[in-house]
Amino acid sequence: MHNINLIQDEFLSKNAIIENDKTYTYNDLKRKAQEYEKRIERNTLVLCFFNAYFESIALYVASLRGGFKCILTSPNTSKETKKEILNRYTPDYIATEGIKGNIEIEEYGKDQIRITDSIALLMPTSGSTGSPKMVIQTYKNIFSNMKSILEYLPITKNDRMITNLPMFYTYGLSCINTHLYAGAEIIIENRSITTRGFWETYEKYQPSSFAGVPYTYEVIKKLGFNLLFTEELKYITQAGGKMHNELINLIVGEAKLKGTKIYIMYGQTEATARMTYLPPELVTEKIGSIGKAIPGGRIHINSEYRYNYEGKECGELEYIGSNVTPGYAKARKDLISEKKENNVLETGDIGFKDKEGYYYIVARKNRIAKINGERIDLDYISNIVKKEVECNCAVVTNDKKLGVFIENIEGGTDKLKRMLKDKYGMKSRDIFIKQIEALPRTQSGKINYKKLVIE
After folding, report:
1. What residues of the chain score a pLDDT lower than 50?
2. pLDDT the model gives residue 422
């Protein structure tokens, strides 16, 4: 499989994209994509620094149709990281966004060795920021995952989404893929959900669906769920990390008042986007579960990695499916030869399966650490601390100390330190607590643990 056509002929007369109150049809999008196809040669590499706009989506559509390969990265990528990516990948073209969302393309490398046919796209891993390491996604990966998602999400040609998640984030991009293929409308809005402008656009165009990571819904909780749950909103989706059960229950309660459904999902960039989903009717009964595998996929527990969680025997989750990507690239030389299909992904997440076959994640392998010989789950401790101080927090370790970073806690931290000492038998010298104004986050809203340094 060496191309994907996201634009179906039956939808050409329909509206595809709304940007700054201007509407573009699918035919407009197709024509713009054809312009890029004529300009950019097949099997060349385009390094992209842009958000979602009509022209950037057209360029992406053109890449899948015309066979040139895009590296999707943030327009806010640091100068140092940009330089390193340019040196490692020597792209044939660079595409950047202009002031008004127009895409500017310049030639960069010439007479480069061409990229292999099966590769469609390169994306940063969902948890990484400022890294030249990219996940390789093939046409088969993208198409199979898109079709699986369309089997369980009720996306139709009458639907409308808003681009609150970045296009260079696999969850956000998968929303664009599925809505384009289904002939739905996409509302362009790149302002933060904390701004009045975002919600003015949201209120004006009334999306029928909304996608968010846990941090998205934490922010909306503070702003007021009345902003989100309009009469036109049919369903919301959540992926990008585990959401606390208390917040899930709160959202479910608000959603029921408006007749809105909620889909809890689980995925990774290494699986193109999604691996599991939990149907709306089970969100309360199976609270905390990531559900079962998406259509066409399978998931099981690898018991070689054993971990006991509250009396439950757990292991590492392994996913099998055609959406599993062939691996990573660190330079252009990694893109020259054909990639073997992998189909099996060791997720790095620790979990268990209940009697009805629904999966639960309890920890992440790289978030289980040892301090003074004791094995501790950093995310578990983080949840306990969050309940204790009722503030956002993050827990890290340097293998010698436990570091707790807390947003805007009222009062001192002595009580918290005593609680950690008593609960885990730790000494004062083993615990570092720091109050900070805001936790550092990646572009996708995840906590950027690398920036939390124990002093």
Report:
1. 127-129
2. 75
Interatomic CA distance for residues 449 and 455, integer angstroms: 14
Residue 390: CA count within 13 A, CB half-sphere: 2
9-361 matches 372-451 in fold = no
What's the token pair of residue 324?
């599993």
Nearest partner of 16 among 32, 2, 3, judged by Cα: 32
Using CA atoms, how far residue 5 sits from 65, 319, 407, in Å, is 5, 27, 46
Q: Name the superfamily (CATH) of residues 372-451.
A: ANL, C-terminal domain (3.30.300.30)
pTM of the model: 0.85
pLDDT tens digits, 320-366? 999 999 999 999 999 998 877 789 999 989 999 999 999 999 887 77
The strand ranges marked E within 283-358 are 289-293, 298-309, 312-320, 327-329, 344-353
Please calculate the CA angle 393-277-301 and round it to the nearest 5 degrees: 80
Residue 130 pLDDT: 54
pLDDT at residue 410 in the model: 66
Domain ranges of the chain: 9-361, 372-451
pLDDT at 442: 77
Question: Which residues lie below 8 Å from residue 268, measured CB to CB, with a gap of 6+?
Answer: 125, 126, 170, 275, 345, 347
Query: What pLDDT does 36 receive?
Result: 97
List Cβ neighbours of 254 (8 Å cut-off, separation of 6 or more). Answer: 225, 228, 229
* Residues in a beta bridge with 431: 402
- Fold observed for domain 9-361: Rossmann fold (3.40.50)
Burial of 404 (0-12, 13-18, 19+ CB in 10 A): buried
Task: Give the three-state DSSP class for 445.
Answer: coil
Pairing mode, strands 15-19 and 185-187:
parallel
pLDDT value at residue 236: 98
DSSP 242-266: PPPHHHHHHHHHHHHHHT-EEEEEE
